[in-house]
Amino acid sequence: MAGSQRYIRYIVIAIAFLGLLFYISTSSTTTVPGIPVKDSASSSSSSSSTLQPTTPNDSKSLPPATAPGERMNATFVTLARNSDVWEIARSIRQVEDRFNKKYNYDWVFLNDAEFDDQFKKVTSALTSGNTKYGKIPKEHWSFPEWIDVDKAAKVREDMREKKIIYGDSVSYRHMCRYESGFFFRHPLMLDYEWYWRVEPSIELFCDINYDTFKFMADNKKKYSFVLSLYEYVETIPTLWDSAKAFMKEHPEHIAKDNSMAFLSDDGGNTYNHCHFWSNFEIGNLNWLRSKAYIDYFNKLDRDGGFFYERWGDAPVHSIAAAIMLPKDEMHFFNDIAYYHVPFTHCPTGEQYRMDHKCHCNPKDNFDWQGYSCLTRYFDLNDMKKPEGYEKEQS
């Protein structure tokens, strides 16, 4: 008898529990603190087709460009290796989020080896424009026949002992030579007129709400920068000698209203080592492919300083732009907030930073520091320094 009563008690408890669950699941008035509850009429009027997915981009392609207007014949260009995939992924995301999702410009990737499937898969998934992958010809990434490789090896050893940055690197020298004289001649680049150079692990701090390529074209600019500084003296001891020899041989390539005063304090006799940092550049490819620039590069290449010293592409480009282009064909992009280790360009001007959702710390801005050459550029062009620059000087 006791066993039967116990059995009946279990059945009653189970029925009560199921009833409670049914009540909770069907109740329209159950609330959770802090979460509003719609009534049944409101809920029934909402169609599942109008609900938005929680993932902002669940398709295989990025959203279409949103900025109106024509597009320029332009591309981003990156020199990278397969091992750089995650560093360049960071850079692509920065550029896309701050600028290119509105314009969908193409991206060209160049490598001295074949790109692997992972690199292509990751980068193509992140870019909103077309992606193109090119291998650098061996003759553009090797010692030219006129270079004494034993002499070049001795230079690298000496620089290693002196602890000069990249002083003992062969690949760095090939990179500098390639960026100085060949990237704009790669078959994939011949399709374009404008380029924006992007390197791995860069950061863009502010929204860019206009087409920088169109700005360059509309204002007849051919070369631009965001950071300028002094080059390591030990890496370019004879670069200026080669540049002066070029100017003497080809006076027809020298612009009348040039920026020599940015490079030299004595009318061109000596070089003050100022240059534009070329890991960021927006420029005109037709200028780089011009006879003037090719003559200049060929002169420097024959002199051997890319291997017998450690000439960087930044001073090479800078000297060319400063002597071959009129001052008004160069441009400083104060509004492109940029970081490449170890320097930051954070636009001077609080209101601009607020309006363009900038997340850089103005205390990190390199522009008005002692090792920057920007003041020299402003003075040369009679430009008024932005309000508040004094607070960023040191």
Automatic annotation (TrEMBL):
<feature type="transmembrane region" description="Helical">
    <location>
        <begin position="7"/>
        <end position="25"/>
    </location>
</feature>
<dbReference type="GO" id="GO:0006493">
    <property type="term" value="P:protein O-linked glycosylation"/>
</dbReference>
<keyword id="KW-0808">Transferase</keyword>
<feature type="region of interest" description="Disordered">
    <location>
        <begin position="35"/>
        <end position="69"/>
    </location>
</feature>
<dbReference type="GO" id="GO:0000032">
    <property type="term" value="P:cell wall mannoprotein biosynthetic process"/>
</dbReference>
<keyword id="KW-0472">Membrane</keyword>
<keyword id="KW-1133">Transmembrane helix</keyword>
<keyword id="KW-0812">Transmembrane</keyword>
<feature type="compositionally biased region" description="Polar residues">
    <location>
        <begin position="50"/>
        <end position="60"/>
    </location>
</feature>
<dbReference type="InterPro" id="IPR002685">
    <property type="entry name" value="Glyco_trans_15"/>
</dbReference>
<dbReference type="InterPro" id="IPR029044">
    <property type="entry name" value="Nucleotide-diphossugar_trans"/>
</dbReference>
<keyword id="KW-0328">Glycosyltransferase</keyword>
<feature type="active site" description="Nucleophile">
    <location>
        <position position="281"/>
    </location>
</feature>
<dbReference type="GO" id="GO:0006487">
    <property type="term" value="P:protein N-linked glycosylation"/>
</dbReference>
<dbReference type="GO" id="GO:0000026">
    <property type="term" value="F:alpha-1,2-mannosyltransferase activity"/>
</dbReference>
<dbReference type="Pfam" id="PF01793">
    <property type="entry name" value="Glyco_transf_15"/>
</dbReference>
<comment type="similarity">
    <text>Belongs to the glycosyltransferase 15 family.</text>
</comment>
<feature type="compositionally biased region" description="Low complexity">
    <location>
        <begin position="40"/>
        <end position="49"/>
    </location>
</feature>
<dbReference type="GO" id="GO:0016020">
    <property type="term" value="C:membrane"/>
</dbReference>
<protein>
    <submittedName>
        <fullName>Glycolipid 2-alpha-mannosyltransferase</fullName>
    </submittedName>
</protein>
<dbReference type="GO" id="GO:0005794">
    <property type="term" value="C:Golgi apparatus"/>
</dbReference>
